[in-house]
Specification:
256 residues, alpha/beta, five-stranded parallel β-sheet, two-stranded antiparallel ribbon, 9 helices, 17% strand
Amino acid sequence: DSFPPVIEDVLGAVKKEALQNVDFVVVGLLSAVSGMIGNAYKYQTTKYVNTCTMWGLISAVSGQDKTNSIMLLAKTVKKISDFESHSYEMKKMSYEGLTDDEKKIHPVPIDKSFWITSSTMEALGVDFSKNPRGVIWHSDEIKTFFGSLAQYTKGKGDGSKAIQMYNGEPIKEKRKAEGNSVYAPFVSLALFGTIQPANLDPIYYENKDSGMMYRFNVIEGEGKKRNRRITDEEIDFSGVEALINKIYLKVANWNP
């Protein structure tokens, strides 16, 4: 009873239908929902105004269903993002067919697709400039995210830029090679993924000084493989998908 009813409903369906590790599903679900909300809703604590951004990380050895648990959620959220991408392309095509006078009275379509599985800190600036709501980054192996931090910094992770995105701070970058700047007044980066415990310690110590690691909500496995239930019956995921869609429809029309 710790979560809002819409979240509790998803977790109840996971227990009933999916045979997944519910603890692992929770961290991915909350991170994904925070990304769906993005910049559309902010809250204030003392003098600071924050986005709903959450970073979730599952640390567990092989055989504990961390990937299966996160993919159950990821597939559904990706479908929603793909639908938004297709809808945007249709609206864009219609908009481009308008006359100049008609364009003055019709809003420019906005790409509300939000799902990525890889990027760079530099490319994210472009993503945010296109989608003011924000971006959800899913990484089955979170090491790829930390690798992206170092792609243009000669091996040294750019944790400060990631924290800037976590905090929802505007981005303005002057790009010499492209001859123009990227400006994103609304920024929100939700992030979730998995990692082997043996790989977590070196990443933690490499990035702890920037404060970035303290932004992650980490769920740890039990240290041993799960006893899995074996069934010949096809598992019905439709109930879980319908409930996640219900959450998105609830927040989709909120505007930054």
